[in-house]
């Protein structure tokens, strides 16, 4: 199991995402699969078990919303309906699922594409472009953390993520070092010191180096 900041999946940078989708993934299937994980914040098993009718109409056109069925969710809590934004629509339009197959990502023997196979595809893509420490769960965690960074209310994020409760969701979203520094620096308005004696924090304007753990694995138990 990969260890990244206490065992949590690595948060992807925009540069890593662009590199993976432009040069790492070699198949439209893989771009569509992990695009769904990123742009709907779903778990890899939820993406793998999607049916073609959950994303396309009978004429093969991409639907306005993606349906993640209750029976395929963790805990089988509820069906989720996620708007398909333009970035995901492009990926799904470029992907042409095999006709006559019930699953959006069919595997062998009439089954759906397996999460373990998706993990292998991700490993191959990461190796090709020299990225390490990324797991299949990174896309979901990246999406939810980005929504939090964008100040989307937790209750709305929960509607997208399908978490059982807000407490569970809050432990899932990463708090970045620069956010903590920014939070305490904001307390400067309480300072008794004159402006000339205040200390500036240049690191607030500098990009933070992210941890680069070894290994690329699927998250054990598809946490969260």
Automatic annotation (TrEMBL):
Q: Which CDD domains match?
A: INT_Rci_Hp1_C
A GO BP annotation: DNA recombination
Please name the InterPro entries in this protein's record: DNA_brk_join_enz, Integrase-like_cat_sf, Integrase_catalytic, Tyrosine_recombinase_XerCD
Keyword Ribosomal protein in annotation: no
Protein's UniProt name: Site-specific integrase
Question: Which family does the record claim for this protein?
Answer: Belongs to the 'phage' integrase family.
Q: Which UniProt key words apply to this protein?
A: DNA recombination, DNA-binding
Identify the Gene3D superfamilies for this entry.
Answer: Intergrase catalytic core (1.10.443.10)
Upper classification of the organism: Bacteria, Bacillati, Cyanobacteriota, Cyanophyceae, Oscillatoriophycideae
Whether Signal counts among this entry's keywords is: no
Pfam families named in the record: Phage_integrase (PF00589)
**GO terms assigned for molecular function:** DNA binding
| Occurrences of domain Tyr recombinase (ranges) | 7-186
Q: Extract the ranges annotated as region (Disordered).
A: 195-224
